[in-house]
Design the sequence.
């Protein structure tokens, strides 16, 4: 189950493209390694494993592995050391946790497409229809999606167990890994309860951000890298502050793009978050302000969000949200968080090259347009 | 994250009740250990974790941990050795994999109750209704059920990682653990495809049995115990043959009880498997025989299975299935498999006490009435 003779190349620390290539190579090797065990169970299981492989390798920015790898380098990890390929493989396994999160999230959000392809449950729903099988196609698709997501979660652990980490590094990694998984699942639970229960507060939206995105996307990946490098507690604390602040800012930027982003750049329909009725910090800010100053606007927001909005209605809501000052407030939060996060990075004992690289990644994550 | 000062007591090998108590103690300790991390995320996540804890501790025969523990003892594991509590904790973690499998299966099978309680997704559906929240209650229940099952799967790994196994034992265990999880998920995928695609062959039903039940319930738990004890390959091979044969026989007995069992004893409505249209070996045998000898009976079976049958229709189908010789054929398979499995056990190098105990467990699993 090891990566074997085709161990991934060791990317240079500041070359993002090389990290992406190496991560995808490690994932490809892992799936190749699984093929025999899966083939023994027959074509149905092979098809499910292939659907997972396609999902994982089809795209994505490899953000989490890149932060973990850079965290390791920044804590003194040596990309030329014999341990480096095992570290890279462990970092790449984050993409399998992410696959589970996305596949299950797509069921929860009833999303039909992702990155221009049908979501896993939609794909299997269609296969059911094409074969004219018995029973409900939608329920079949959901069932397969649940199991393919489970497979991804189980395989994430298998990939780490087989990465070839030494036992001490594995144990340090495992404690952070455990915390991270509980946090992302907790964040998803908070998210669906927030939507159902209608908690409109800024605090509730920030709490979801904290666990569902910030911890899981930047803070814990950096922490994982630091744990692998056996970093000292001060560096870990600085990484975590940087990761939390930049992670929340990253999600706030995402919230803005979900309402104001250019569909040609984001790849999502314009105003999608408004149609879905997502309870973001942006929306919470808008509602809070409207409640204070403009009850009619508050009413319009509450009755419009989560409905099938026409383009001109989307435009009207956008204008309203901006006029209420919610956009400025969110931009202000992004600036404050980014400044604080970068200050933590600056004062940290991170190596200069990694510091430079993390700064670039932080700026890209918080000021991106897509 | 260790079991700490309240390490579980070390049960004597042949005392099933003591094993159950120790397994439940290890699980209780694990959940207690999680409480602080979960509390930090707030009451929503606490409620989900409590739902999982209730589900896990509410009942169940602890079959998988018992087979794993007995497999370890039978391979020379010493219940008085310092390593024994870690082994017991690792065996107990099988109950968390099982919790994920059952919680997600209940969504897939649209089951409303389990062991006399609402299933997890039904429970949260009802909470949604009680609170008069927005959005669909059923979809909310499914969403929470997916995430609680994911939590169980993630926590199973965490429990093993924190059990305190030495690195070599952990590595041996991990390889079998990985195989087992892929097999049970593969078995579930085969199951839902079998039902949807209408593969009526005995071979398809046996293949589902093999992966979904036999490997996962007896073969791999024994193998896990043997791996922890660093057993030699001959004993592992004998364990696996015993486990596969007895595991399949166990499921065949379950199939018979699902159609002919006494509701007062099984706790399930009479003929439930007929109403659900389960594609068991029993049904496959009946259909195969009817196709050869009685086309009208085959037609009746195909149009009746999976429909909302009245009690007298259940009785008629039972009589028909028995008359076709399907019951005798399944009983014959159970006898052949049990004899072969017990022969593998007899010739194995298992310790005499464990051999006796496994024989008792095998007979109970294959001749039980509930």
Sequence:
């Amino acid at each position: 189950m090891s990566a074997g003779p085709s161990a991934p190349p060791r990317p240079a620390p500041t070359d993002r493209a090389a990290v992406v290539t190496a991560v995808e190579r490690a994932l490809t090797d892992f799936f190749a390694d699984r093929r025999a065990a899966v083939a023994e169970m027959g074509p149905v299981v092979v098809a499910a494993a292939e659907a997972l492989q396609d999902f994982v390798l089809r795209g994505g920015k490899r953000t989490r592995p890149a932060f973990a790898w850079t965290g390791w380098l920044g804590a003194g990890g040596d990309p030329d050391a014999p341990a480096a390929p095992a570290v890279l493989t462990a970092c790449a396994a984050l993409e399998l946790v992410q696959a589970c999160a996305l596949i299950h999230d797509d069921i929860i959000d009833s999303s039909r497409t992702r990155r221009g392809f049908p979501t896993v449950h939609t794909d299997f729903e269609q296969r059911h229809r094409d074969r004219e099988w018995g029973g409900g196609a939608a329920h079949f698709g959901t069932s397969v999606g649940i199991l393919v997501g489970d497979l991804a979660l189980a395989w994430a652990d298998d990939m780490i167990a087989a990465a070839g980490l030494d036992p001490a590094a594995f144990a340090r990694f495992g404690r952070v890994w455990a915390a991270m998984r509980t946090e992302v699942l907790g964040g998803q639970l908070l998210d669906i309860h927030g939507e159902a229960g209608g908690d409109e507060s800024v605090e509730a939206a920030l709490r979801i951000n904290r666990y569902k995105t910030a911890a899981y996307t930047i803070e814990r990946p950096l922490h994982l890298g630091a744990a692998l490098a056996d970093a000292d507690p001060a560096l870990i604390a600085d990484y975590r502050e940087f990761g939390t602040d930049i992670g929340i800012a990253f999600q706030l930027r995402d919230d803005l793009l979900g309402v104001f982003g250019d569909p040609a750049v984001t790849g999502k329909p314009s105003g999608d978050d408004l149609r879905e009725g997502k309870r973001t910090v942006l929306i919470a800010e808008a509602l809070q302000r409207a409640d204070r100053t403009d009850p009619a606007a508050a009413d319009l927001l509450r009755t419009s969000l989560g409905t099938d909005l026409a383009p001109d209605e989307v435009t009207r809501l956008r204008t309203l949200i901006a006029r209420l000052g919610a956009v400025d407030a969110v931009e202000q939060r992004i600036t404050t968080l980014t400044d604080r996060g970068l200050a933590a990075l600056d004062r940290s004992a991170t190596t200069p090259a990694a510091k430079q690289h993390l700064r670039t990644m932080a700026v890209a994550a918080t000021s991106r347009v897509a």
